[in-house]
Amino acid sequence: MSAPGSDTDDQHSIWNGRLKTNAKEAKFFLEFLDALTVRFDGMPTDEILQTFWGESKEALMKIIKKANKREKKVEAKFAPKDLKKPATANILFQKDFKERCDKNGTKFDLKASADAYKALSDKERAKYVKQAQDMRAQYQQEYDRLRSAAIQSGAFPADKPKKPMTAYFRYLQEVRTQLMEKYADDKDRKGVNGKVAKDSAEMWKALTDKQKEKYESAYQKEKVSYDAAISKWDTNETNRRKRQNGAAAGEADPVEIESSGSKKKAVKAAPAPAAAASSAAASDSEVEEPVKPAKQTKAPAKAIVHSESEQEEQPAQEEQPAPAPKEKKATPAAKASTSKPKSK
Q1: 54, 143, 297, 314: which has the fewest C-beta neighbours closer than 10 Å?
Q2: DSSP state for residue 318 in the 8-state scheme
Q3: pLDDT tens-digit profile of 142-201?
Q4: Which one, of 249, 157, 174, lies nearest residue 214 by Cα?
Q5: Phi-psi region of 307 (alpha: psi -120 to 50; beta: other; left: phi over 0)
Q6: Which residues fall within 8 angstroms of residue 89, CB to CB, at 6 or more apart?
Q7: pTM
Q8: Domain residues of the chain, as ranges?
Q9: How far is 217 from 166, CA to CA, in rounded Å?
Q10: Which residues, 6 or more positions from 29, have their beta carbon under 8 angstroms from its beta carbon?
Q11: From CA 133, how far away is CA 306, in angstroms rounded?
């Protein structure tokens, strides 16, 4: 181990802060550490954990578990865009306090507003509390309406059925009050839950099968209803996600491109048996959309081709002899070569 104030302490400070604020990195760190432990014998897992984390492994797992719960709540929460949350009684008072400050020409101060709100009598404060409660009720009514509409349209998933309480937890619910009274004088309130769970587990194991029967039968009865409800929910949720993904991808109806150039929508469902013959006849006599001819440009006069009838009507034209080729003029150099005799 290195001495205090070394690079190890710096690494501990940096990684401790990163792992505390980033649950994804903390999860990766634990998975990577477990993989190293399995792959290599004698891996100093505890030393690595203390160097980079500085706390127990359970504390790091608690951070990850808390972050996972928070992510699930965020995903399952319906948040309409155009619906604003209602103001609280304190915020409503702040608005009135600011209006009084503007009217009197004084500067608005948030601390002064909070002190003035605390100084209100119960009767004066009840006015803002009642107004906030009315706004909250209106907000909740509109929230429920929008949420229901989103579920019907498939934009938001319906509530997932909750699992039924098992036989043991039904028993624990009955004896919990009795066990909590047993540890009423215990000052370690956090440890009381562990003691209650331990005692209830021992008491449950001591019960006979006949004593457990009422808890088991109640669980099985609710489980039948739950299995049917969760199966229906899974089917509806799968179909909802498919429709949502299809709409996001911008899928369109398939189109067949025929050789004639016409477009024809593909048939999605087969026709009914009674209308099979009529639909077949209609398909045989179906007239396809004509292909629009391409625009023709005017051909030059020399390229005009007449039909046979037009050629017969036109008088025969005498063939004109082809003009004689013009003689090329001799160049000065050529004239000089022809005029001067070759010297011997």
Answers
A1: 297
A2: P
A3: 999 999 998 888 888 888 899 999 999 999 999 999 988 888 888 887 788 888 888 999
A4: 174
A5: beta
A6: 125, 128, 129, 131, 132
A7: 0.44
A8: 7-76, 89-153, 167-246
A9: 10
A10: 15, 19, 52, 53, 60
A11: 92
